[in-house]
Design a protein that fits this description.
The complex is a heterodimer of chains A (365) and B (265).
Chain A: H1 11-21, E1 33-35, E2 37-40, E3 54-60, H2 83-100, E4 104-111, H3 122-128, E5 134-146, E6 152-162, E7 166-173, H4 182-187, E8 192-198, E9 206-212, H5 221-238, E10 242-248, H6 285-290, E11 292-293, H7 297-302, E12 323-327, E13 330-331, E14 337-338, E15 358-363
Parallel strand pairs in A: 3-4, 9-10
Antiparallel strand pairs in A: 1-7, 2-5, 3-15, 4-6, 5-6, 7-8, 8-9, 10-12, 11-12, 13-15, 14-15
Chain B: H1 5-13, E1 45-48, E2 53-56, E3 61-65, H2 69-72, E4 75-85, E5 88-97, H3 100-105, E6 126-138, E7 141-151, H4 170-174, E8 182-194, E9 197-211, E10 215-230, E11 234-246, E12 251-264
The chains are: A alpha+beta (365), B mainly beta (265).
Chain lengths: 365, 265
């Protein structure tokens, strides 16, 4: 739930810099479509068994920030971490990943070269410390320097880690928020859909489509992000491919009982309040209609709490579901899980990130 | 090769003077201040919008500071002409600054927050010294070279208390706070191009050993400016500065076009 603080006092100076230096002096821009960044992990890793169901996990890892109270959550004032802190936080994620042992791990908010993360490449680190060998990455927030709040250099985005080779990875740019000033938009997050082909031997072409939708927009940008994500799934599906649509969609499933007034939303700045989902009640309807979710909708509607995957307050508990896995393939019945705690997944995940990982097993055709 | 572009261009522009440079006699003192060894004339005052103000304390001594920036970053610079012989001149230039106030100002929430609000800038002084030699290639054409070093004695601090300030252009100028010393070298070429149109080109290199998160880093800067001088009272300049530096995340090139005006009294 990254946040760029309000750009107030020095707006004119920053605008002058941008005007004087041309279009992209801090290298924050992206093409509409461009190749993603490829990674490969080091060390011996056992070959996966394609005859078994594909184990898929989705995890917003909060840039290896664990439960440090950062300024943008309004619970604290931290901006930067030490390398030791980042490695400690990432190390605490490893048991969750090892225990589930996913074939595909989709990440949101993974930093690869950010000052706040002590410049640790978290994609590479996770590949080097798990059984996952291949990775692709698409930045959603990149700047040589964000001259706000002391953030400095930033490179944060979506990643796909896999035991199977990945190919044809593309970063597809999503619409930018329109209600921001030009200077805010220049330094703000530029979200994307990350699409990659998963090379599973003996299976029909399979694509992983990953995204992290906008959180704070009030101009319909979030809706457009979700629709563009589905459009990508639809196009691949129409061509006869198997698709896995994975992400933090920043909205609630249809039929969610509690849709506003979450106690962990303590920010007072209207710009960064994201706890009223009443106008979004049907935004995921078409995804649920056309694809199979990791947790059947009727199961979720019968018991919302067991599938909550997000909370800002480290002292509370998961209080809403924002994280999803959809597919046009067959979901192994009962395999969908939100790894909330020892009773749900076997590990307490509240101390590890502001999101809980979500997983499912899928029979690939 | 981009580092040398502006300098090469300026050299080319000034090449018409090279045939005569061996016979150059001592030239009249330059009126306008610049990155050369000779001070401005005694009692001359210059005020610039972006550049430092300059004042000729004596025939051999020049004081420089920016009267507005001074309140955010207290500083004073002195240039002393040490020797002068024909087309050659040698000066020492020293600068003393108190960066703590500025670092506190940029430790803030929101825009302009170059450092986190929770930063605690230490009490510090920044001391810079350099030898500056100039050689008149021809009338109103001067090549200068400088070798210098910056040190910053300061109260102890951790990287959590004050993270590295690596904003482009400020980065090498505050690096001494994070290491033992920052040596630098520079070449400056300035002169008349045509009638009242003057040029100013520079190339400046910084070595920044053992910076936190980065290790030994460097920064190369170059600038090229054209200045229209309406006599010795008003000068309007237009230029660009380029900075290529090794940061913790990558080596990056940044540029900053600028316009300035200065007045002489």
């Amino acid at each position: 739930m990254a946040r760029l603080a309000p750009l107030l006092g020095c707006r004119a100076l920053l605008a002058a810099w941008l005007l004087l230096t041309g279009c992209d002096p801090f290298h924050t821009g992206f093409e509409d479509e461009e190749g993603a960044v490829y990674y490969e992990g080091h060390g011996d890793k056992p070959a996966p068994d394609p005859s078994q169901p594909l184990r898929v996990m989705n995890y917003n890892v909060k840039f290896g920030g664990g439960r440090i109270d950062f300024f943008f959550d309004c619970f604290g004032d931290r901006v930067l971490m030490s390398r030791e802190e980042v490695i400690e936080n990432l190390t605490r994620l490893l048991p969750v990943i090892e225990k589930y042992d996913p074939d595909v791990l989709v990440l949101q908010e993974v930093d690869v070269n950010s000052k706040r993360g002590a410049y640790l490449d978290q994609m590479q680190w996770l590949l080097d410390h798990t059984q996952l060998r291949y990775g692709v990455y698409a930045s959603q927030w990149k700047a040589d320097y964000i001259p706000s709040d002391g953030l400095g250099a930033m490179d944060d985005g979506n990643g796909i880690l896999s035991k199977y080779p990945l190919s044809g990875a593309e970063r597809i740019a999503l619409k930018l928020r329109s209600e921001q000033s030009g200077i805010e938009r220049y330094f703000y997050l530029k979200r994307n859909v990350l699409r990659a082909k998963l090379e599973v031997p003996g299976k029909q072409p399979t694509y992983v489509v990953a995204t992290h939708s906008d959180a704070y927009s009030k101009d319909g940008t979030k809706r457009q992000h979700i629709d563009r994500f589905k459009q990508e799934l639809d196009a691949l599906s129409a061509d006869g491919n198997t698709v896995l649509g994975v992400g933090d969609l920043n909205t609630l499933p249809p039929g969610t009982k509690k849709q506003f007034g979450f106690p962990d939303s303590v920010c007072k700045d209207e710009e960064f309040i994201a706890d009223d989902y009443r106008a979004e009640a049907d935004w995921l309807d078409s995804l649920y209609d056309d694809y199979t979710p990791e947790v059947p909708l009727d199961a979720y509607q019968a018991d919302n709490e067991s599938y909550f995957s997000h909370s800002v307050d480290k002292n509370g508990f998961w209080n809403r579901k924002l994280d999803y896995i959809f597919t046009n393939a067959t979901v192994v019945p009962g395999s969908g899980l939100v790894h909330q705690d020892k009773a749900h997944g076997g590990i307490e995940t509240m101390p590890l990130s502001d999101h809980a990982p979500v997983s499912v097993e899928i029979e690939l055709p | 090769m981009r580092h040398g572009l502006s300098l090469a261009l300026a050299l080319a522009l000034g090449s018409h003077v090279t045939a005569a440079h061996a016979q150059v006699e001592q030239q009249p003192r330059p009126i306008w201040s610049g990155n050369h060894a000779r001070p401005v004339p005694e009692h001359r005052l210059e005020l610039g919008l972006l550049q430092n103000g300059h004042y000729g304390l004596s025939k051999r001594l020049e004081l420089a500071l920016h009267p507005l920036w001074f309140f955010a970053l207290p500083h004073v610079e002195l240039k002393a002409l040490a020797a002068e012989q024909g087309p050659l001149a040698l000066a020492v230039r020293g600068r003393l600054a108190y960066p703590t106030i500025f670092l506190g100002l940029v430790s803030r929430e929101g825009a302009g927050g170059l450092l986190p609000k929770s930063s605690s800038p230490p009490q510090a002084l920044q001391i810079e010294g350099e030898l500056l030699g100039s050689y008149d290639l021809a009338p109103a054409q001067t090549l200068s070279a400088a070798l210098g070093v910056a040190v910053a004695p300061h109260a102890s601090f951790t990287s959590a208390e004050m993270p590295l300030l690596d904003f482009p252009f400020l980065y090498p100028r505050f690096a001494a706070l994070y290491t033992v010393l920052v040596p630098r070298a520079a070449l400056y070429l300035e002169g008349r191009l045509w009638r009242r149109l003057y040029y100013d080109a520079s190339a400046l290199g910084f070595l920044m050993p053992k910076l936190p998160d980065v290790g030994t880093a460097w920064a190369l800067e170059q600038s090229l400016a054209l200045e229209y001088r309406a006599g010795d009272r008003v000068a309007l300049s237009l230029g660009t500065r380029l900075s290529e530096a090794k940061y913790a995340y990558a080596t990056r090139l940044h540029y900053l076009p600028y316009a300035d005006v200065r007045f002489g009294f």
